[in-house]
Amino acid sequence: MNAQTSTATQKHRVAPPPHVPGHLIREIDAYDLDGLEQGFHEAWKRVQQPDTPPLVWTPFTGGHWIATRGTLIDEIYRSPERFSSRVIWVPREAGEAYDMVPTKLDPPEHTPYRKAIDKGLNLAEIRKLEDQIRTIAVEIIEGFADRGHCEFGSEFSTVFPVRVFLALAGLPVEDATKLGLLANEMTRPSGNTPEEQGRSLEAANKGFFEYVAPIIAARRGGSGTDLITRILNVEIDGKPMPDDRALGLVSLLLLGGLDTVVNFLGFMMIYLSRHPETVAEMRREPLKLQRGVEELFRRFAVVSDARYVVSDMEFHGTMLKEGDLILLPTALHGLDDRHHDDPMTVDLSRRDVTHSTFAQGPHRCAGMHLARLEVTVMLQEWLARIPEFRLKDRAVPIYHSGIVAAVENIPLEWEPQRVSA
Fold first, then answer.
1. Adjacency order of strands within the sheet including 304-309
2. Mean pLDDT in residue range 135-157
3. What are the residues facing 314 on neighbouring strands?
4. Which end of the chain has fewer CB atoms at under 10 Å, N or C?
5. Which neighbouring-strand residues pair with 391?
6. Quick check: helix, strand or coil at residue 330?
7. Are the C-beta atoms of residues 408 and 400 closer than 8 Å to each other?
8. CATH of the domain spanning 11-413
9. pLDDT grade for 10, boundaries at 50, 70 and 90
10. 3-state SS class at 29
11. How far apart are CA 335 and CA 330, in angstroms?
């Protein structure tokens, strides 16, 4: 028996429930995808074969359904009355330990909390931040541009969006490391069994709450202009936001700001380092860069969250039972060739770009305007100073799957630009 087979055999699995037919069972581990070493998106795309059913069931991570087509992913996100957010992560033990709002709430309870978040993250407010975001991007890039190389993950992608968000939230940049470790355990909880993963996530969730509790106490009733103060002091149904909801909401802001864009940037830059023709097109046609950001988000979705089946139903020909969980790998919407021709290729001229990278429906990502602006500004300033770059020869990125995918080891190199005297 080879090592790969042995590892697969040792994975924690559960028996399928009676309503799951054998022909829909696939051994897919969302935290350890087959072929992950070749790339996170490539591994998920291998699942999406022409004969793959639109819903499959896996015995790993506690046993759950997986939506494999964009149409289903979109529909499930938009249907909270049938597919609840009460448990949004797999395994179930991790999802039940997750205690941040408003992501785990359904309408109408969800609505006032979402309005509170939108007060600070709406498009008009985010546009005011462009100069600040640009200044941060330029400072970081100019710190290594003349050197001719950088480790993109540690020197840029884990620094730039974190600095932007901590400044927006009025928090010290020195806290980034601690918060980053907690975020990692939230989105890729450690453990070999669902119970162990649940305990890891619970501990990280508690760590966030302990961090934000004194911040909430200090800013409650305040008049500051930082994101936390503005959102915290929005009334919910005519009353101050309850303390337990405030803990969850502020923690969610930090989690979202410190993990998703960080990892998206890594996947994006690996691709661009291997496709100089796409980089040249961005430089040649700046408008294509701006419009093409949505194509980049389509191609490099990183989130795979879940929904809870509210009641027994038949859904796209499959019988679902109340309490079933359905994993929604957002990458599989953007990579669905029934929606996009040649989906693995970044096409800056692509029209009718559709994806669920920011989810859909009432839980559509409140931070999407900030994410779009960060990526646009970053590319503009990067290409102005580093117009051509490549992945270092023989470099092998290390990919991680989970609720939010991640990638490490992205050494980039380039010829420093020479300024004429």
1. 55-58, 64-67, 325-329, 304-309, 83-84
2. 97
3. 319
4. C
5. 412
6. coil
7. yes
8. 1.10.630.10
9. low
10. coil
11. 9
Rounded (10°) angle between helices 160-169 and 243-274: 150
Q: What is the pLDDT of residues 63-111, one digit of tens each?
A: 999 999 999 999 999 999 999 999 999 999 999 998 888 899 999 999 9
Sign of the dihedral defined by the CA atoms of residues 125, 108, 256, 307, in that order: negative
Is the CB of residue 145 less than 8 Å from the CB of residue 130? no
DSSP summary character for residue 324: -
Report d(CA 34, CA 248) in Å as an integer.
34
- Give the type of residue at 399: Y
* Cβ pair 56, 355 in contact under 8 A: no
- Name the binding residues: 110, 114, 307, 363, 365
The edge-to-edge listing of strands for the beta sheet with 149-151 is 149-151, 411-413, 390-391
Torsion of CA 329, 200, 398, 387, to 10 degrees: 70
Amino acid at 149: H
Residues 94 and 194: beta-carbon distance below 8 Å? yes
Both tokens assigned to 338: 């029934």
Residues in Cβ contact with 216 at an 8 Å cutoff, skipping those fewer than 6 apart: 228, 232, 243, 246, 247, 250
What is the gyration radius of the CA atoms in the chain, in angstroms?
Answer: 21
A 10 A CB-CB count for 54 gives 17
CA nearest 293: which of 225, 376, 192, 229?
Answer: 376
Structure tokens at 39: 């790339």
Element (H, E) at 4: helix 3-10
Nearest CA to 212 out of 172, 254, 261 is that of 254
| pTM of this structure | 0.92
Q: Percentage of the chain with pLDDT > 90?
A: 88
Contact 104, 86 (CB under 8 A): yes
**Binding-site annotation: residue ranges for heme b:** 110, 114, 307, 363, 365
- Over range 334-354, report the average pLDDT: 96
Structure tokens at 232: 């915290």
Q: Return the domain boundaries, the chain.
A: 11-413
What whole-number distance in Å separates Cα of residue 365 and Cα of residue 228?
A: 17
What distance in Å separates the CA atoms of residue 408 and residue 411, rounded to the nearest whole number? 9
> Which three-class secondary structure state does DSSP give residue 100?
coil
Query: How many residues comprise the chain?
Result: 421
